Amino acid sequence: MDEIRKLMVKHLWWLVLLVSVGMLVCHGLGVKRIVVDNTSLILLAIVLVSPFVAAIKKVKIGEFEAEIQPEEVSRVTREAERSIPVQAQDDARHVERKAITTIKNLLDADPIVALAKLRIELERRLRRLKQSTDPGTRNIKRPIPPERMIRELVAQGIFTEKFGDPLRGVIAICNRAIHGEDIRDVDARKIINAGFEFIEVLDVMIRQHAATRPLETTVITPEERDKLAAAMYLLTTVVPLVEKPERRLYRLTQEELDDFIDDYSEFAEFIIGLEPASPPAG
């Protein structure tokens, strides 16, 4: 099809020229069976222009571009793929986030709504990460724009510019699509797949940041260490994804507690309490 269009574009000018000359000669000789009027001229102009319509990539009015270019989408997704550390991918992919499942369901129904949901989820994670690194931002009533959060997180060393640039690009394309710029379904899917990678890795960053920054550190004696290592613990969890949600209480040794936490992501329950417990009587 592209070859036919290229052939038409290549040879159309002289075909139209011949038709125009023929119409001019007929009009000059007064051939009554051939009428040259405004309608004929308009149709001739449409014939001349029509092969070029398919070549139009965007309509630009002032600073507004009506279509998001496939080349731009490819560049952003390619940079996104390169920006995700392999180890972060392995840490993130052990479970699919509920947000990702929701976006996948929206994608089949309306890609623009799916892009809007992706943008919301990315901003939510950036805000959580920003609040964990700078608790003072929790009290700010006016939301911080995602672009500014990315810039500040890069400045704080939470992630690199190599990670932040394509993340900013994904959010920017989401914003443009939400505000009316056309995007092909295939390109929307590319952006959403790149966004899934960022959601997963940002979730890992949030967990790691919380787990590696204690609020307080106190030196203890070897005797206290040995006593705590041999202690029993009461672990309280909630199982939410059943017909009748449950609260569960476990009595675990330190070794059993370590095993439970290692496999925690595979359990359909979440921890709500942990405290020392006396060993069972007898």
Topology, please?
Blueprint: H1 2-29, H2 38-53, E1 60-61, E2 64-65, H3 70-83, H4 86-92, H5 98-109, H6 111-133, H7 146-155, H8 161-178, H9 185-211, H10 222-229, E3 232-239, E4 246-253, H11 254-262, E5 270-277
Antiparallel strand pairs: 1-2, 3-4, 3-5
Helix pairs in contact: 1-2, 3-8, 3-9, 4-9, 5-6, 6-7, 6-8, 6-9, 7-8, 8-9
Q: What would you say this structure looks like, in words?
A:
It is a single chain. This protein is mainly alpha-helical. The protein has three domains: 2-56; 64-211, no CATH class; 222-277, no CATH class. The chain is built from eleven helices and five strands. A three-stranded antiparallel beta sheet has the order 4-3-5. It has a two-stranded antiparallel sheet with strand order 1-2. The longest helix is centred in the N-terminal third of the chain and has 28 residues, at 2-29.
List keywords for this structure.
single chain; 282 residues; mainly alpha; 3 domains; 5 strands
Q: How many domain regions?
A: 3
% residues in beta strands: 5-15%
Shape: elongated
Rg result: 31 Å
Stretches where pLDDT is under 50 for at least 5 consecutive residues are: 52-57, 90-95
Assembly of the depicted chains: single chain
> How many distinct helices?
11
H/E topology pattern: HHEEHHHHHHHHEEHE
Report the structural category.
mainly alpha
Helix percentage range: 55-70%
Summed up:
With 282 residues, the protein is mainly alpha-helical. The protein folds into 3 domains: 2-56; 64-211, no CATH class; 222-277, no CATH class. The protein contains 11 helices and 5 strands; from the N terminus they run ααββααααααααββαβ.
